[in-house]
Amino acid sequence: MTGFFKNISRLSYDPDSTDLGFRHYNPDEIVAGKRMEEHLRFAVAYWHSFAWPGGDPFGAETFDRPWFGNTMDLAKLKADVAFEMFELLGVPFFCWHDADIRPEGDTFAESLRNFKEIIDYFGEKMATSNTKLLWGTANLFSHRRFMSGAATNPDPEIFAWSAATVKNCMDATHKLEGQNYVLWGGREGYETLLNTDLKRERQQAGRFLQMAVEYKHKIGFKGAILVEPKPQEPSKHQYDFDVATVYSFLKDFDLEGEVQVNVEQGHAILAGHSFEHELALAASLGIFGSIDMNRNDYQSGWDTDQFPNNVPEVALAYYEVLKAGGFTTGGTNFDAKLRRQSLDPVDLIAGHAGAMDVCARGFKAAVAMQEDGTLEAMRAERYADWDSGYGKALLTSDFATIAEQVVSCGTTPQPRSGRQEILENIVNRFV
Ligand code: XLS
Ligand code: NI
Ligand code: NI
């Protein structure tokens, strides 16, 4: 034991808890035919909880963690603390970037050696832990070499460096039996069109993603490859703008059926959508994979990555997840970080525990809405005329025939209510 979380014991379900216990998340409770833990599939994000130093654009680190520093011993201490936290929270999964877990070396080879040693260290820990790997990913955005992009960099050597990095991160994810591999392109975009060959960069990104898919098949990785859309930040414009943009990109590069999306709450908001919009669209396009759960500050206009705390919002999101059939390889990754004034170890536990409770409440509300069935019945009723007779035949007809029928039948269609307020009132019965 590292002693970092001293005086904190394993959290358990206690509906009357006034302390750190879960008041709503009961992993063993059967909801909609399955244990809640298996539905929600919570994951801790290594970067926010253990690598982020608490800086902001106006100030440097506020956190003073005993594992901060660039040595292997400290990287192992960080891993020890991380696995202690997974155990305290009882989370079934975690996620990492290469740069979160290993010290950067002077050369690619040295960084890789460090990385592999930590992956082995994780492997040993995972052998006796209940926490598995939801996904691995490569950090192709923090180091200055990636300032002009990774796959989309004007310098081919950076493309090569990035490809080598993703290859090794995929190997490691495969080795640890990760359920997915994620690609998020924070620098795959531009700062100014004046220096950007948009067409060429898009081709580079497409080929890069094809190579990742080819490599997945080569090594026999059975998990899903997920692209995480985000419209901007850190780049002014990012190519994986939103779910719709990613879909057209996948179509263009023949990657449909090979790649799904990891949808993040805060990114949806930045793109001018709601989380449920992005989830519903992903599901309808057949590319729903996993979620990064967090929330933005609605006033600040950037990706603040706060822990979720809005039950009605979360309920509508899980409603879409349920309609998509729930998670298969995906899960609920808390891509969320503490506020920089939240210095204490207990804050890390409280942030996650509260978020797990908010998700549990939202999820149970979503299940209740689904089991009640009124919302879906009303939706089905709204489109019912398409299911038979005239409506059913319409889409296989043609303009000329339709025009003739419209004139000859002589009736004028009457507008019907969309019933939005009634539907919103129904949702409010459950949240
Ligand atoms: C940043 C992204 C990042 C990805 C993983 O905004 O959300 O954390 O999830 O690279
Ligand atoms: Ni994000
Ligand atoms: Ni994310």
Q: State the low-pLDDT regions, or none.
A: none
Spatial strand order of the main sheet:
3-4-5-6-8-10-11-12
Order of helices and strands: EEHEHHEHHEHEEHEEHEHHEHEHHHHH
SS-derived structural category: alpha/beta
Strand content: 5-15%
Q: Please give the number of β-strands.
A: 12
Amino- and carboxy-terminal Cα gap: 40 Å
Write the layout of secondary structure elements.
Elements: E1 30-31, E2 34-35, H1 36-40, E3 42-45, H2 46-51, H3 72-89, E4 93-97, H4 98-101, H5 108-127, E5 132-137, H6 156-175, E6 180-183, E7 189-190, H7 198-219, E8 224-227, E9 237-238, H8 243-252, E10 259-264, H9 265-270, H10 275-284, E11 288-293, H11 311-323, E12 332-334, H12 345-372, H13 374-383, H14 389-394, H15 399-409, H16 420-430
Parallel strand pairs: 3-4, 3-12, 4-5, 5-6, 6-8, 8-10, 10-11, 11-12
Antiparallel strand pairs: 1-2, 7-9
Helix pairs in contact: 3-5, 5-6, 6-7, 10-11, 11-12
The structure holds D-xylose and nickel (II) ion (2 copies).
Residues 97, 137, 182, 184, 186, 228, 230, 264, 292, 303, 335 line the site of D-xylose.
Task: Give a brief description.
The protein is of the alpha/beta class. It has helices spanning about 35-40, 45-50, 70-90, 100, 110-125, 155-175, 200-220, 245-250, 265-270, 275-285, 310-325, 345-370, 375-385, 390-395, 400-410, 420-430, and strands at about 30, 35, 40-45, 95, 130-135, 180-185, 190, 225, 235-240, 260-265, 290-295, 330-335. It binds D-xylose (XLS) and nickel (II) ion (2 copies).
